[in-house]
Amino acid sequence: MSAKPKLKQVFDRPKSLKDVPYHYCPGCHHGLIHRLVAEQIDAFGLQESTLAAASVGCSVLLYDYFDVDIVESPHGRAAAVATGLKRAKPDSFVFTYQGDGDLAAIGTAEIVHAANRGEKITVIFVNNAVFGMTGGQMAPTTLEGQVTTTSPYGRSAAEAGLPIRVCEMLSTLEGTAFAARVAVDNIKNLKKAKAALKRAFTYQTKGWGFSFVEFLSSCPTNWKMTPEEANARVGKEMADYFPLGVYKDVRAN
Amino acid sequence: MSAKPKLKQVFDRPKSLKDVPYHYCPGCHHGLIHRLVAEQIDAFGLQESTLAAASVGCSVLLYDYFDVDIVESPHGRAAAVATGLKRAKPDSFVFTYQGDGDLAAIGTAEIVHAANRGEKITVIFVNNAVFGMTGGQMAPTTLEGQVTTTSPYGRSAAEAGLPIRVCEMLSTLEGTAFAARVAVDNIKNLKKAKAALKRAFTYQTKGWGFSFVEFLSSCPTNWKMTPEEANARVGKEMADYFPLGVYKDVRAN
Amino acid sequence: MYFDTIIAGFGGQGVLLMGNVLAYAAMHAGKQVTYMPVYGVEMRGGTANCTVVISDRPVGSPIIHEPVSAVVMNRPSAEKFGPMVKKKGQVFVNASLIKEGQFTTRAKTVCWVPTMELASDIGNRRLANMVMLGAVVQGGGMLTIQQVADALSGALDPRYHKMIPANVGALKAGARFISEQKAAKKG
Amino acid sequence: MYFDTIIAGFGGQGVLLMGNVLAYAAMHAGKQVTYMPVYGVEMRGGTANCTVVISDRPVGSPIIHEPVSAVVMNRPSAEKFGPMVKKKGQVFVNASLIKEGQFTTRAKTVCWVPTMELASDIGNRRLANMVMLGAVVQGGGMLTIQQVADALSGALDPRYHKMIPANVGALKAGARFISEQKAAKKG
Amino acid sequence: MARRVLIKGNEAIAMGAIEAGCRFYFGYPITPQNEIPEYMSMAMPKLGGTFLQAESEVASINMLLGAAATGARVMTSSSSPGISLKQEGISYLAGSQIPGVIVNMSRSGPGLGGIHPSQGDYFQSTRGGGHGDYRTLVLAPSTAQENYDLTMLAFDLAEKYRNPVMILGDALIGQIKEPVELKSYRKKPQDKPWALTGAKGRHGQILKSLFLADGELTDHNWMLAKKYKSMEKEVRFETYRAEDAQLMLVAFGSVGRILKTSVDILREKGKAVGLLRPITVYPFPKQAVRQAAEEAKALMVMELNTGQMVEDVKLAAECACPVDFYGRPPGSIPTPDELAKEAMKVWRKRGLK
Amino acid sequence: MARRVLIKGNEAIAMGAIEAGCRFYFGYPITPQNEIPEYMSMAMPKLGGTFLQAESEVASINMLLGAAATGARVMTSSSSPGISLKQEGISYLAGSQIPGVIVNMSRSGPGLGGIHPSQGDYFQSTRGGGHGDYRTLVLAPSTAQENYDLTMLAFDLAEKYRNPVMILGDALIGQIKEPVELKSYRKKPQDKPWALTGAKGRHGQILKSLFLADGELTDHNWMLAKKYKSMEKEVRFETYRAEDAQLMLVAFGSVGRILKTSVDILREKGKAVGLLRPITVYPFPKQAVRQAAEEAKALMVMELNTGQMVEDVKLAAECACPVDFYGRPPGSIPTPDELAKEAMKVWRKRGLK
Amino acid sequence: MPQVKVISERCKGCGLCVLACPKNNLALGKEYNAQGYAYVTFNSDGKCTGCAFCAELCPDMALRPYKEERS
Amino acid sequence: MPQVKVISERCKGCGLCVLACPKNNLALGKEYNAQGYAYVTFNSDGKCTGCAFCAELCPDMALRPYKEERS
Ligand SMILES: Cc1ncc(C[n+]2csc(CCOP(=O)(O)OP(=O)(O)O)c2C)c(N)n1
Ligand SMILES: Cc1ncc(C[n+]2csc(CCOP(=O)(O)OP(=O)(O)O)c2C)c(N)n1
Ligand code: SF4
Ligand code: SF4
Ligand code: SF4
Ligand code: SF4
Ligand code: SF4
Ligand code: SF4
Ligand SMILES: [Mg+2]
Ligand SMILES: [Mg+2]
Q: Which ligand 1 atom minimizes the distance to the CA of A133?
């Protein structure tokens, strides 16, 4: 009788995530993005030196999940808070985690200037084209025609303009060293997302400047879709308007 | 004895400017830019339908000079105030007049979003690379190495980043219909400035969208230069970093 | 007359609609009424609840710490709200998802309503909430089933008006179940 | 001892420096002193002024509505501050730029100081402000010229220390002018 | 005949505003007031009005400033942190005398705090959260019906005084669904010679708060102070079973409504307890409180905070009788029973019979 | 020996901060406090510290929040409109218990107003200009020397209470140049176990103001309320010729200093007039005022506004003697003579001899 | 044989793993967990490759794939 | 003959018109106006073309150029 081959666990939680359930809705990508960030913290050995600026949005409870030092930021101000953290503790790894309402609406000035100054921080931008936490209002990144609770007839370009492409806008600034847009709707994209995150972490740990990773993310609840439909929308409509890719990588050789 | 040929005045104040002296320092371009704007108001016959949003900066007393309806905006918020004006009175001609501290620092979110929404307003942006009114502090547009009262050792790119090129940044937004950077340091540039202003006015009066004219401007007082030196700096160092030209003109044929 | 209740369950179970219909019916019956939903972050994670207070006098507080009744449509709700109900109160339990012993309560009366089964019986499992509402009205006695049925056209979005007869059927099924139970107990 | 003055002129005339040197000298002489500049938008348009108060007692208000003296270096300043000076006060007028009849004042004493001419005489027209300060100190009597001269090294940026002897010369020239005038009047 | 509907407090505000002729709304989402922008986004396009979701609360108060400068009726709404961000703009509105209605469905603070009902923004609302020596009228509804009615009033007052008017509620007031009678608004068209409409047949005119010339700002501030004084005639309050009350409870908004039940409970026990509920919290019903202080044996203030309105009550009572206080920071809503118990403590402490 | 220098009030603040170990400054220019960022921009690089000009006041208060969260001593400064914009951030600092020093060299409002000395921000500073039921310690210096000394104190208090501390001045206090004795700061190194320094040898820790669980926010608010109560021991005030005063003047900051001369003038005329000058305006020197109200025949409050601190004085005096008020909105600075005259009016009105 | 353990109390029944599995090894079940979610079940009929795609794409980290150890 | 009138009370002596004039017709004077500025003076020795560059570039609109009317 041949010995049963030993089974090895090929996936586990990153250790910089606490072992607690998320409060996120079924199928929400926030949880997945958290994990990817935590994996890099582990990979770079940064759990003991990370300082995070949480933001206000569905991910406001970030600090219940990440086992690192975290400060709550007022809505939209995470990039300014992170600037304070990094200036005071330049040897720390500092990141923000912000939604599209947080970063692209109320926090526009803070993100533009943090990028322009070339703050040595890493910004995780979760673009789900909607204000999730507050119940599904229009965001600056809401697609044209998309129905939300404050665009009940669909977003109108004439009234509200077209969605802002943040990655592209920030890439025009001299201070932005790395900027990429990724998605986690399938394994291929997930791998690219991991690579982009890794690169962003590299930028900060090497002191190369401001790094920015935009995640296209789903919000089944407020999109009024099943998780599968929402997941599919990320790769289709969203990625159509917000093309995936690396927008800036000043140290690319 | 031949009759002396009659002399005709070949230059006069625009009528939408009140006949009062400016409070500006000798050689300051603000006064000149005021006049160019007023000339277009006259040329387009808009004195009776113009609503302006004044801003906070050396030009805060705009309403003492322009003979049109004007509301004071809190520092940086002129683009939001103008949005309110235009939405409430869509048939009016609405413009803002903002300095680089006002528009490119504290007012970043407001200008980005007004542009992105494609508000049908005209923004006059006076970039003199310094906070004039408050006594010469560093602005987001202050050139690298430039000494100001808050960059006494010269602006450091490592600490403060490089100057923001607003015209370029706003041009990436879908809502920006017209954007140009001009100067008034010599007759040639003055003519181009007039043409750009005219085009911006055309955009608004035809309802074509958001129009933006950035003026490189001098601040002899805070640059600690004579008016001539300051005037020369506009055309040299400033225009080197902030290239003049039309950046966007979506209706150009 | 005074009645209050907390109605709780998963987001998809239509608990807010139950509260709304009840409140609407109370208004039409000339009562004072308040309806109070949970809102904000508390909505994440898929649970929902609302509180309805019906009275002859103006309603002071729309939120109740010790309710006269609770309507619990799933287990987490039963665990959370069961213990809060007054001693003399009633708990209406969705017997299709909750089992005996899965929650505690001081309440004298616990009505086990097999909502999904009753709804299936009348041909539409999705009407489980209306079945429960019928049971609550019958058991609570603050309104008549007819008053609630009459309120449906006002409370429901016109898009759903064609569903009114089915809803009325569900209300009645729930009411009937309670009556039968009572009769059984008495008998 | 109590003395106050408003010193006013064009931005380029060094009026703020005059005030600073005076305040610095007062501090070193062990007096209580305040110096208050104008600031903000009022600075546009090229005029400047400051107020210095010197006293044996703590100074309550650093801003004076009816000053004991005013030092006016140009015509707009004379027009603005001349009328504010107390009846018993003194106005020090820059006679190089201001003519008789160009401003009004109630002040008993008006000293016309040809600052630029006196400064030219000692070889540097740009020291007109120090000439005037010498005149003010001599005329006001709140400090000695020596006290002011001694304060220069502290009040001036080290870059300008090599200019101290010239400054002292200017102070003295101004003081001498006042003494001579007084002597002339008496005589 | 007035239509009776079952609507949320927030919807009542939106509907009241629209009934009062408000056609411009600028806002930014925040719980627990989202039904206001959501209602507006649905209704405005149909009415030819403007709903605009701004990029922030700072932007929205300034859009309001711009639109209101043209003489239009304009509203914005938010909740505590967002209202803090609007303070600079509110101060400008007051300084430039531009009317506007600002709704604060306040949350529990400080900071992000929570979304529980709370009355922690009383000071901010009544004592110039913004800089400078200005005041805003502040209306504190306690039912959905009052939300509707007072919103209409808010627009009238804003224009009458050329001043920002605040509506101060909380999650209870905004989220509650109650029957509301939809009365119709009797329009009083007002002349607005100050409005910016274009320099047609006149010189350009200006709305501003900057006054540089000597004494100008002093005059401006005196004028404003006089105006604020003149607002005192707008005082509104409600009394409930106040006749012969030995202990008079004083509370506004959500606590004010809960206390009615407490008063009933206490009256049933034979205790002569009444309620004075300020409806305008600025201007504060000083005279009514003063009178109550003279007639009752004790006043008792109850608030969802650790003591804010109690200062106004003490200032108004002028030591005519003792003023007790029960404060309860946000986090849970007190029941009528609990509050009745607290009242009884004071009843006994003050030896009332 | 302490060095004596002639410096501006604003510079005194910057120098006091640096002496107290402040190495992080975030600000945005605004008159009349620009000498603070300007001094910092000059000094910080030499000290290995950080001066950062933020894109706005909103950004700067949040940079302060971030840097202070690591346990560093951090300062920001601004003036009225900028302080209004910081209110949300201040509320977050209070809620998350993060220390920080915020200077308000206030301007005259409302709105843009002007840059005249003014005391229109008293309410905003002492009564939570931001949302929620929190308090900040507020120090009100009246001389350049006090600017220096109180700034050092501000850092200590901020850390002691894990709370934002405000320094409230105006153009007079910021722009005046006076001799200042540069005392040296005796460092009291403090343990800051709450500071974010990286999860080394411990789990991650959190600084936050959001409390969602039932009752958690109530507890948090009670804890804060207790803390505010405990701050009362920090009360500081100065009396001037107060012995036997029949009329006690009460004023803070710039008016406080001007009134000293007025008191001298009145005393010379043989009038028993004294001055009580609150140095901390929150906590307010209630007991001192109460005692003055008992000992004097009348109190008189003078402010550069139309009536703010007078409420605190009345609340403290508890009707023990009449409280009169002279207010003067910004626009011109009152002279000692003018104020002495106003005091004489009250002297006569109250029949004092 | 490779296999996947489902931590049923963590599963929210979103179905994203079902989509992710190239071998169709996962399916939403009929049992509800305490949170009220019908959690996913693993069909261990031998098709699982241990590729971990399912776990990688599960937002809630409810899956633990195992694979034979290479020796 | 083309010429330029200087509104001396409006001139701030900045010298930008001096720079602008292709014919060197303008120069800063030695007289001060009431504001204390040494205002510019026009040298009418016949070189002025009435091109108005000076007026166009004067920030303070202190210049009024005149030109023969074409008939
Ligand atoms: C100053 C302020 N304004 C508004 C809010 C309310 N608010 C909370 S989260 C949020 C937006 C959330 O959207 P987003 O940033 O896209 O995050 P998501 O929930 O979609 O992940 C808003 C507007 C707030 N907390 N503070
Ligand atoms: C909220 C606020 N912050 C700061 C100020 C002070 N302030 C007035 S003008 C100004 C900047 C002026 O610079 P800019 O916009 O470039 O105009 P300029 O004077 O250079 O023409 C600042 C910071 C203010 N009035 N309000
Ligand atoms: S509301 Fe949307 S973003 Fe928020 S947790 Fe649910 S799915 Fe995710
Ligand atoms: S300070 Fe500069 S921008 Fe302001 S008026 Fe003077 S020169 Fe012009
Ligand atoms: S490990 Fe791969 S094959 Fe196995 S269940 Fe998961 S996705 Fe399917
Ligand atoms: S992806 Fe995760 S949460 Fe979703 S069904 Fe699969 S195991 Fe459950
Ligand atoms: S009009 Fe032309 S030529 Fe004549 S002075 Fe002016 S710039 Fe010179
Ligand atoms: S450009 Fe105008 S202000 Fe300047 S010197 Fe010439 S005329 Fe005078
Ligand atoms: Mg979002
Ligand atoms: Mg500028």
A: 19
